[in-house]
Amino acid sequence: MPAGARRAFRDWRARRPFWGGLLLTLGGAEILLTQKASLKVILHVGMQGLAGYLLPGLMLLLGLLILFNPAQRLFYSLTGVLLSLGTWLTSNLGGFFVGLLLGCAGSCLAFGWLPDQAPRRSRRQRAKEARAAGAASPSD
């Protein structure tokens, strides 16, 4: 990957709750994959099978919406956590707990993301700035 493309992706990723959307999408995909598992592995299909496919499909969709429409992240993340918890009953105990945990963690990350937060500075960088400010000020 060229340096320009990597920088452009990093800038795109910084303007949205990337990890929250990605984890929610992965949680929905994992639950959908466990639905397609062999019958020896399936524990519970639930609610005539439709909700078992509908809830993780909506989780996957909400994760993508968080990535590509971060302005509505609060609604998407609240809906995502409710759908993730709903898969406990409808989809093999939430994809054998893995998809349920990924979905809940991703929704919480997306809900807590702040778009206008200043970039974090390391302790070393803050100390360097404090030394520079102390050296620049005239002493009496």
TrEMBL record:
<feature type="transmembrane region" description="Helical">
    <location>
        <begin position="50"/>
        <end position="67"/>
    </location>
</feature>
<dbReference type="Pfam" id="PF19609">
    <property type="entry name" value="DUF6114"/>
</dbReference>
<feature type="transmembrane region" description="Helical">
    <location>
        <begin position="96"/>
        <end position="114"/>
    </location>
</feature>
<dbReference type="InterPro" id="IPR046096">
    <property type="entry name" value="DUF6114"/>
</dbReference>
<keyword id="KW-0812">Transmembrane</keyword>
<feature type="transmembrane region" description="Helical">
    <location>
        <begin position="74"/>
        <end position="90"/>
    </location>
</feature>
<keyword id="KW-1133">Transmembrane helix</keyword>
<protein>
    <submittedName>
        <fullName>DUF6114 domain-containing protein</fullName>
    </submittedName>
</protein>
<keyword id="KW-0472">Membrane</keyword>
